[in-house]
């Protein structure tokens, strides 16, 4: 498996993967993503900011995630964590249906840990729709603790479960 920052050339494959996973999510009762979100503009912004990572298996896009620094709306203060503490935040995590069960999501989350340590951050945060059973199993398995439930104004009617992972031995900014 190869993990790397996404490039603009990856955008068609990212949008194709998105088009595969959204209907599957919705069929499973998970309305977190739709035709409106995430969209091409969101991914272009992730690319421009240098936040979008991709995973490749056998030369094919197998997954992606936006790994951002403290990118959280005010509603995240509802969670049981220190909202003011700097954190690496995982957004828009998805795995191609054909690649599920092959460790792609775990590899992207491991990359988030690596980046957090490099940036001197001691905390990782992620949220998931309350109907996303797969991620609710995955995050605790990888050492994330449940940090409560929130709502988001830009996704009305949905509930989100928050998870946080504290990193032991994270580097400080001064030691980098």
Summarize the structure in words.
This protein has 176 residues and is an alpha+beta fold. 29% of the residues lie in helices and 27% in strands. It has a single domain (2-175), classed as 3-Layer(aba) Sandwich (Aminopeptidase). It has four helices and seven strands, in the order βααβββαβαββ. The chain has a seven-stranded mixed beta sheet, with helices on both faces. GO terms for molecular function: acyltransferase activity, transferring groups other than amino-acyl groups. Pfam families: Acetyltransf_1. Residues 1-168 form the N-acetyltransferase domain. This is L-amino acid N-acyltransferase YncA.
**What's the oligomerization state?**
single chain
Total domain modules: 1
Main β-sheet description: 7 strands, mixed
**C-alpha Rg, in Å?**
15 Å
User: In the CATH scheme, what's the topology name?
Assistant: Aminopeptidase
Ranges with pLDDT <50 over ≥5 residues?
170-176
Cα distance spanning the termini: 27 Å
Structural class by secondary-structure content: alpha+beta
């Amino acid at each position: 498996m190869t993990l790397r920052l996404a490039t603009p050339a990856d955008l068609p494959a990212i949008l194709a993967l998105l088009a595969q996973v959204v209907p599957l999510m919705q069929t499973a009762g998970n309305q977190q993503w739709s035709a409106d979100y995430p969209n091409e503009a969101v991914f272009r912004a992730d690319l421009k900011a240098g936040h979008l990572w991709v995973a490749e298996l056998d030369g094919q896009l197998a997954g992606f995630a936006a790994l951002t620094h403290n990118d959280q709306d005010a509603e995240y203060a509802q969670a049981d964590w220190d909202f003011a503490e700097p954190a690496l935040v995982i957004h828009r995590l998805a795995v191609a249906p054909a690649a599920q069960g092959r460790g792609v999501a775990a590899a992207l989350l491991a990359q988030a840990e690596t980046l957090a340590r490099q940036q001197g951050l001691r905390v990782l945060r992620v949220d998931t729709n309350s109907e996303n059973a797969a991620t609710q199993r995955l995050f605790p398995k990888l050492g994330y603790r449940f940090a409560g439930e929130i709502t988001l104004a830009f996704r009305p009617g949905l509930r989100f479960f928050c998870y946080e992972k504290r990193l032991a031995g994270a580097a400080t900014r001064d030691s980098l």
